[in-house]
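During the first year of the project, the team set up a workflow for recording each protein of interest as an amino acid sequence followed immediately by a discrete structure-token representation. This format lets reviewers and collaborators read both layers of information side by side without switching files. As required by the reporting guidelines, we include two representative entries from the current panel. The first entry is reproduced here exactly as it appears in our internal archive.
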Amino acid sequence: MGLFKRKLPAIQPGCRFVKAGDPPRKAWVVTRVWETVDGIPHARLENCIQQSESRLVSISVLNDPEFFIPAAEPTVEP
């Protein structure tokens, strides 16, 4: 099975996600990535609108489209 496993993009600080079912404007940005003592990689997410709101999730959850969807980078108007 490992032979056919698709390679997922690396999640790093600055990556943006939207929680499945939430409106696209409520995006979350990865601020930190680390591996816990049990070897499971995790990420800290901060709400892009309200930075005081944060979440800790495993990288496998971020890569699961049932929970989070990669968000488009915000566009900056000149």
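The second entry, processed by the same pipeline in the following quarter, appears below.
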Amino acid sequence: MRVIITEHARKRLKDLRQEKITANDIINAAAGIPGKIPTATRFRGFFAKSGRVFDIVAKDIPNGRLVITIIGK
């Protein structure tokens, strides 16, 4: 499955709250969500390789899975 990360989400990766979360962590988390996501939904409790916990907001579009934002804990 193709995972698309929005510019907003990429910008948030530079914030202090999301430090040590990489784009690869986000791709792995989004690709690991089973089923279809018809509307923007928040998924909680993913772990980055650094050990940082984060949530993602994602939805499915015709081109793949769109990651709208990332929320670091």
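For the second entry, the following points were noted during internal review. The radius of gyration is 11 Å. The chain has a mean pLDDT of 94. Both points are flagged for discussion at the upcoming steering committee meeting.
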